[in-house]
Amino acid sequence: MAYMQAGVHRAGGRLSVADIAAQPGGIEALRCRVHELRSRGVHFAANAIEQEMAALDLAPRG
Fold first, then answer.
1. Is residue 49 part of a domain?
2. What burial letters (b/e) apply to 9-28, b meaning 16+ CB within 10 Å?
């Protein structure tokens, strides 16, 4: 993903949803990751990302 190439990182190598969303194209990258996780059946992780996005008011409006 673009945020890794841009040199954005935290101690321990973990990024928060807010860190990713702050990067150019980050919100779209998060949405793609949620889709990828769901397609693999990893719903708990997809749900966690979506919950953090909603808390940050980044969830798509419908």
1. no
2. eeeeeebebeebbebeebbe
